[in-house]
Protein 1
Amino acid sequence: MFLLTNNPVSPAGKVNPADIRSWLNNLFIFTLGVVSIYVVSVIGILEQPNHLISLKDFVPNVFVLGAITLYIFQGVQNLIRKFTNPN
């Protein structure tokens, strides 16, 4: 199986450098989703009428923390899948 590179995926139970690069690439792609959720959240707070900007506006809310939690879970799940899946 070939991912975004021309390097083959290693057999089950072993992870080669191509797998690690693929995993890091997947983490980067999913980071963009989490960052966009955070930015939209901050914009929503800042666009409220008569709102004064404070540092508390940039603290992630519960929705963003949930997205971060799912991001971490997905990253760990993806790495475990690379160890156990033969292709």
Protein 2
Amino acid sequence: MFDYLGINTRIQYGTIKIPGWDLTTDNLFYNINKAENYYHDNPTYNFDNDILKSLLSSFYIPTSIDPNAAYHYIRADGLFSTTTFGITSAISKGRMHKGFFYGQGTNELVMAYTSELNISLLHNNWKTLQPIRVLRHEFDSLSYININGKNNYSDAPSFAVIGIDITKLYMMYYYWQKAEKAKSLLEGGTERNVGHFIAMYVLPNMIESHNDVVIINKYYNRVKGLPDVSNVRHTPQFFTINVKKVLDDQITNHLKRMSTSKWPIVQIGQNTMLTNNKSIIDHMEFASDLINYQNKWLWFLSNFKPMIYLLSVGGSESVINKNKFVINTFIRELDRMINDGSFSISPLVPIKELLVKELAELKKLCKY
């Protein structure tokens, strides 16, 4: 996102080392890997995620063609398969959905995009691809269970933004089908189907990005003076290390040190670490090949809370002034999107209301 706004994030500013952070995130990543491996190794079936089943059923890729041909076919035509499902992309504004991932209590916006992949590496590492990326949600509890739409994550109405990398999803499914055919020929038996693929690989591999957003929400709650609310209903069926308290303490201590820094927001972002050695800056970058009128608004909406967090850390007028260019560019883009009339049609009105509400919060914070 910062690159899109013309802000250089490649300059490496100084960092504050958080005592114990490396051990905490190592333990957190251990839990995430444990969850991924558990689902990869224990065949389960997903009954509930209709949008993923519909996508995978709507785009036929013959497993008889070679990987390069499959990849170029997906790159050329894959995005068009998403338009009939109300998914936001560079060719469709999309619409609001009810809980494909976080359950019926959550309004969700789903965005599809394409990306470039190194095909030569996929034969060995297709199982590690992360085609589904959680871009935003309202939850603040670490979780290691499949986010499958079956169970509500919150009694209160909630909101989430989910990104689907169509190139990764369809290539992953291509390799899955080839592996199932080979296994069936060698061992006999029937091939497992799309429901198994979703439950065993697609959903487990999004657990990491879910927890990235949990950490962002914890930082956001601290700077806004909001309490965390435990809202995960189910515990995993495998051992995990409890990192909640130590993570909460480290975030609180880290914010105390950063709040007096008067850093520019890029430096604050580089110092706000998530899982697997990623920063909040990495999380906020646009993943799509193409950013345009149809999908730009959703990338901005995904980044509202991180942006408000970054601007709130310093908590002083000088911090706001130091980041004035970023603020003005961000607000101008959003004003233009809200007022251009494209959200006036019925399915998009709830989205416009959400954008207006969050933009008002940002303007108030920045005395705009």
